[in-house]
């Protein structure tokens, strides 16, 4: 039997953006409901050490996300294990349908459904994810100081990641299926002039090799796309850089998107093209894609949702002339 739940603010997604929105919306007395989705805790649950979350010199990604979840719950956010399969934004209250059959009606919605790195789908890629295989140079490059690295891909992401990784690695081999890069000319120029980078044309990754205990990468096997010849390359890190895809399935037909599907928000804001629908985190961010920036946007979304609800007369006793930030949060 289907059940209907109403909330002032529905938060869709349980990554850093979603949980931070949950903390702020709870502290603003909005009694938010947060629906976690298929990956409770989001992308950081797929990695090991995180070394750039302020306040933690080193923290395991899954542990950090459990702490964020506990923090949101402690502030009063209701966290629900469900997946939103449909979002109706054509009338208010907005209506979201859960995979469980529950229908969530909401005066405002914060979309925090994040993004997914694209992967090749190899068994050994999956096996060594977080143990030498990564999709984020900004996050993990630091672990490969003085080591040899392989980057897979030939677009902007791969070229940028390869260049960034030369800050740490002794050598970066860029493995690409063709002999031509699909990236901005200036980036290609920088890449070709960088003595630490060696492109390997007409090759594709077929296997990541390494040790079992501890689980750690020792190299890759790559296949020539024309001759089929297999070559082994020794390396300690493999960065799969074949692009990112925002998880925009719920809204791609109703909200404005750009840069390959990222939801457009107003400048310096999380407001989308539909009043009352806010978007935060990697779903909107083709540029930084970090936990801390996502959390920052989650904060902004909750404060802006609270302000918007007050303007609609949905928040009692709120003076909408007050500034956002501390002025907006009930203490
Ligand atoms: C391997 C790896 C390592 C990384 N390491 C770092 C690092 O060291 N430091 C750093 O700052 N960043 C790192 N990042 C990037 C960081 O994880 C992301 O920038 C951040 O998680 C984005 O947060 P988010 O809240 O926008 O979304 P995400 O973390 O992507 O979470 C999205 C959430 O939305 C939910 N969702 C999606 N669709 C639905 C739906 N239909 N219904 C309900 N829920 C839904 C998902 O279940 C998930 O909970 C790493 C990323 C990866 C992949």
From TrEMBL:
<protein>
    <recommendedName>
        <fullName>Thioredoxin reductase</fullName>
        <ecNumber>1.8.1.9</ecNumber>
    </recommendedName>
</protein>
<keyword id="KW-0676">Redox-active center</keyword>
<dbReference type="InterPro" id="IPR005982">
    <property type="entry name" value="Thioredox_Rdtase"/>
</dbReference>
<comment type="subunit">
    <text>Homodimer.</text>
</comment>
<keyword id="KW-0285">Flavoprotein</keyword>
<dbReference type="GO" id="GO:0005737">
    <property type="term" value="C:cytoplasm"/>
</dbReference>
<dbReference type="InterPro" id="IPR050097">
    <property type="entry name" value="Ferredoxin-NADP_redctase_2"/>
</dbReference>
<comment type="similarity">
    <text>Belongs to the class-II pyridine nucleotide-disulfide oxidoreductase family.</text>
</comment>
<dbReference type="GO" id="GO:0019430">
    <property type="term" value="P:removal of superoxide radicals"/>
</dbReference>
<keyword id="KW-0521">NADP</keyword>
<keyword id="KW-1015">Disulfide bond</keyword>
<keyword id="KW-0274">FAD</keyword>
<dbReference type="GO" id="GO:0004791">
    <property type="term" value="F:thioredoxin-disulfide reductase (NADPH) activity"/>
</dbReference>
<dbReference type="InterPro" id="IPR023753">
    <property type="entry name" value="FAD/NAD-binding_dom"/>
</dbReference>
<dbReference type="InterPro" id="IPR008255">
    <property type="entry name" value="Pyr_nucl-diS_OxRdtase_2_AS"/>
</dbReference>
<keyword id="KW-0560">Oxidoreductase</keyword>
<dbReference type="Pfam" id="PF07992">
    <property type="entry name" value="Pyr_redox_2"/>
</dbReference>
<feature type="domain" description="FAD/NAD(P)-binding">
    <location>
        <begin position="8"/>
        <end position="298"/>
    </location>
</feature>
<dbReference type="InterPro" id="IPR036188">
    <property type="entry name" value="FAD/NAD-bd_sf"/>
</dbReference>
